[in-house]
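Pipeline run #58 for the internal structure catalog. This entry was flagged by the ingest filter as a single-chain record with no existing model, so it goes straight to prediction. Upstream metadata was stripped on purpose; only the residue string is passed forward. Reviewer on rotation: M.T. Logging verbosity set to normal.
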Amino acid sequence: MDKINMDTINSERTEQKEVMKRTIKDSVFADLFQDKKYLLQLYKALHPEDTDVTEDDLNDITIKNVLTDNIYNDLGFTVGDKLMILVETQSSVWTVNIIVRALMYLVQTWHDYFERTKQNLYKSKKVQMPMPEIYVIFTGERKTKPSEISLSQEFFGGKECGIDVRVKMIYDGKEGDIINQYVLFTKICNEQMKEHGRTRKAVMEAIRICKNRDVLREYLSNRESEVVSIMMVLYDEEEIMRSYVESERHEAKRDEKIETAKRMLNDGALSMDKVAEFSNLPIEVIEKLAGELQLA
């Protein structure tokens, strides 16, 4: 392949990557719980016994741009001596790697906490740190739904190891609570996407249905334009990624055909017409390759 064509391909690949970078935004999950009103509802869904907690007791410490180049769907906040970490995943293919991701998030959060509170890990005085609780809200489909997964069990066969992480799994929440409403919202969005494709109509229909069913009604009414933008960016990013992957596969196949054609031309046993036929490349490409081989 000539230099001009390769430069064009590389430029297109770079442009696609840059477009993906520019579309990074919060997910609906992160946007929803940036509002302390809904964050308090989330905390009380997880700790209904803590009836005295107020919005003023919540401190958002969500880490940005640390673990992912994709849509942000991680949430971190402190309540008294508790450190709450939640990771939302809509993937239809479950992966226990989420435990490692949660561990990385926890370590980074503690690091930031020590810096923020000006505590020195290298002094003799024992540092003070919030006790972590780690949750994954899984909105995909699973046959088995364990209530908890752990680093030791999933990666080391349950053997005792130097560090363990236990993640509490949430699938549906309790009927009517903020978790349950969010899960219903994602399912309605997926249903509308299957019916209307990754389109604005799918998003608008999902919002309409959620409002009618009293699912995140207040949030969707107050931030409808933001939710539409977030969902459209998500759809665009996924489409760009699919396009990029397909482009990479196409170019890999073309490069393989060109290498095969070069070997046949070097062998000299076949005419250029036959090389074009067997390699499934245009005759113009074969003639150009033959000329380049003669000059080499």
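catalog note: Residues 8-25, 65-71 have pLDDT under 50 and may be disordered.
catalog note: The chain is about 55% helix and 10% strand.
status: ready for reviewer M.T.
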